[in-house]
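user:
I keep going back and forth on a fold encoding question. Separate attempts, laid side by side, tell us more than any discussion would. Would you put together a sequence-and-structure record for a protein of your own picking? Write it directly below this note and I will take it from there.

assistant:
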Amino acid sequence: MSKVKQPSRVCQNSQVSFVNRFSAVALWCAIGSLLVGASGCGQSAGGGSAGGGAPTGEAYQVFNAIKGPLTVTVTEDGNVESGNNVTIKCRVEGGASILEIVEDGAIVEEGDQLVKLDDSSITDNINAQKIAMGKAESAKISAEAKVKVAQINVEEYLKIFEKDLKDQESNIVIAEENLRSSQNSLEYSERMFQRGYISQLELESSQFAVRRSDLELTSAKTAKEVMEMYTKQKTLTDLESQVAIAETGLKSELAAYELEMSKLKRLEDQLENCLIMAPTAGMVVYANKQGRFGSQGTVIEEGSTVRQLQDILWLPDLDNMQVKVKVHETKVEDLRVGMRASILIQGNQLQGQVQRISNQPESTSWFQGNIKEYATIVKIDGAPGDLKPGMTAEVEIRVDSLQDVIKVPLSSVVEEKGKYHCYIQAADGSSEKRTVEVGLSDETFVQVKDGVKEGDVVIRNPRAVGLVEVDTEITVEEEDETEKFGDTSGSPSISKNKKARGGGGAGKGGAGKGGAGKGGAGKGGA
């Protein structure tokens, strides 16, 4: 039930209550029959009219406008659920089939087995991965050996270089000593030559020995310099590059080994995920969900396949229960978080309050057409322990409560050209058409703010008894149809637009055609 917003609608929320029920028309007709038979509330009358059209002469029903309280509520059916579920999901990559699963509704303790998923393909992958990991480990060991050999080659060369350097230094010392000795020998030969003891040839031989010793010394020094400045640098660069190449190869093999090891670890984790244990004690609820457009949705059972991260089970907290209802878009705008609600579950009357209202509409089935409903969560106060998720609950949310307001039946208010009217029966049996201002409504009555006073006799469903003048006019849509298809007057699929719409009800807020205007209280009204 919602607040009437003039002139667009009267009791919009009353209209929607019939959407979730298969036949509101029949329901409202039954209510109308009860109201007709109510003592002191309704009368049967007939006769002429004045200013409101002529009745057909058949009996029609009237009601004395009354002043009293008007409680505005939104009533919907919903399902009990837990506000704090422990969700058991499928953690196996790519999904798996269910081999074993605990019974729905079973009571489990922490550590009990809940689900066993098919692990055959994972076991095969683990065996193959162990082989790949063995190859990667062998390549890693080989790369480590190459690094070690390259490092040893560098150390070996440095030691060899030290030995060769000492050899070159020894050669220099020997060359210097040979040069000094040959120089002394030359001096002696020169003295002997001056005295005539040796020949010119012997003197020249001593001179050549000096030059040869000098050349040997120069060569030894040059060899040492080349070894220190070039040979060492070149050889070390080559050996160190071999070390770098070996280390790079080792890093690559280490990365490959770690990758294969992580793959094996992930597969082993997946194998563990195939066996799901209860993380806490509680009652098991299968995570079955209805598909869109009325199709078969998720079915949890042995043999069914579940995808990764799909819900398999819920372990609800039975001390934190709530009701989820779907409220029509015309009624949800009147709801607010914190509103109190009465909840009827299997004959037990409970209390609660609105905890959350969804901002997005729920998905609907194909046969619901363009109807949009919003999930509304009603928290149950002090929920009894025998409540179980999935139970059906009837929730009545109290939107507003008015005191001492003038109210009339929904079916006594009609909408014509955006305005709302009541037909008042005079003492002489004639009828008077009055424009009224309407307010809130419940499923039976609508508040009249202006135009009707307490005790006025209002005529129910005035359209049905011929009080409302019905003229036929061609709408823009019909003109488009005529232009597109030609004369369609004989076609049952194209109808005329009536100047006064609705069946004698309270505008666009009622609960069925022919009741409260567009969607009133059933054909004929209440």
The chain has six helices and 24 strands. The radius of gyration is 51 Å. The longest strand covers residues 392-409. The helical segments are 12-16, 24-37, 120-195, 200-273, 329-332, 476-485.
